[in-house]
Write a structure and sequence with these properties.
The chain has 168 residues and is mostly helical. 75% of the residues lie in helices and 0% in strands. The chain folds into 2 domains: 40 residues; 117 residues, no CATH class. It contains 7 helices and no strands. The chain is elongated, with a radius of gyration of 23 Å.
Length: 168
């Protein structure tokens, strides 16, 4: 083994010892925090309760895309308001999705495919919009408007949606 290799092993050994000491201390601290705050895994019923709320909330927000565009056009309207046909189309699509999300809140387990579609289409939509906004300085407002809003929708619904039970 080369001299450099031995030095790296020696240094990495010391570094690991130092990190092990810190990790052990951090683990004890985390255990104390967990005991005092009562942190525990989220109950599936609690997740479903919050999922129902999130579906209704996001459904209503999707119904409000048009009013949001009037209040904050740089964060919600593309093409400087010149793409009126595109905007009308996207408002219509999101209004319909909003209605179906509100309906899905009654029984989220039965509407997993709709929720999954909402999660993944939101991610794809946000990534495409982010790339387009980065490439056009006139559209930078979307990087703090509809792009993070769609990623938030995807993250919340993705976390709260129940997984399929395995049939094993």
């Amino acid at each position: 083994m080369s001299v450099v290799g031995r030095q790296l092993m020696t240094h990495s050994g010391r570094l690991c010892f130092g990190l092990s000491f810190l990790n052990a201390r951090c683990n004890r601290l985390n255990a104390n925090i967990t005991r005092t705050r009562g942190v525990r895994p989220v109950n599936p019923d609690t997740k479903e309760y919050y999922l129902r709320i999130a579906l209704r909330l996001f459904g209503v927000i999707f119904l409000l895309v048009y009013p949001l565009s009037m209040v904050w056009p740089s964060g919600w309207v593309w093409h400087g308001g010149e793409g009126i046909y595109y905007f009308q189309m996207i408002v219509g699509v999101y209004a319909v999705l909003g209605i179906f999300l509100i309906l899905a809140a009654k029984d989220p387990k039965e509407h997993r495919s709709l929720i999954s579609f909402t999660v993944w289409s939101s991610v794809v939509h946000a990534l495409i919009m982010a790339a387009q906004a980065i490439g056009d300085q006139n559209e930078y407002g979307h990087l703090v408007g509809d792009v993070p809003a769609l990623l938030l929708v995807a993250a919340v619904l993705g976390y709260l949606t129940p997984r399929r039970e395995s049939s094993a």
